[in-house]
Specification:
This protein is an alpha+beta fold. The chain contains five helices and three strands; from the N terminus they run ααβααββα. A hairpin with a 2-residue loop joins β2 and β3. The termini are far apart.
């Protein structure tokens, strides 16, 4: 059980970065390439790529190659659900 708790803590660490959350939020609308994400978030491609590598390593995003272009999307509906439940929780009125 401790191993699973540690893995869960690592997952929540990935969700603990505002830039990564902004990327996930953009990907809720569907797949995008690094250029599109950089434009939407007003960030350089290097910074976006770094965060995407971390998200991919955590199995939160997946990548699809089309020629020379790489397109990123949410890995599965669990990622969307975690994001949406988190937003619902912080938007609840006391």
């Amino acid at each position: 059980m401790d191993e699973h708790i540690n893995d869960l803590a690592e997952l929540f660490k990935v969700f603990g970065d505002p830039t990564r959350l902004k990327i996930l939020n953009e990907l809720l609308d569907g797949e995008k390439n690094v250029s599109e994400l950089g434009e939407k978030l007003s960030m350089n491609q290097s910074a976006i790529s770094h965060q995407l590598r971390l998200l991919k390593a955590s199995d939160l995003v997946k990548v699809r190659r089309d020629g020379k272009s790489m397109f990123y999307s949410l890995a599965d509906d669990h990622v969307k659900y975690i994001f949406e439940i988190g937003m619902e929780h912080i938007l609840e009125e006391d």
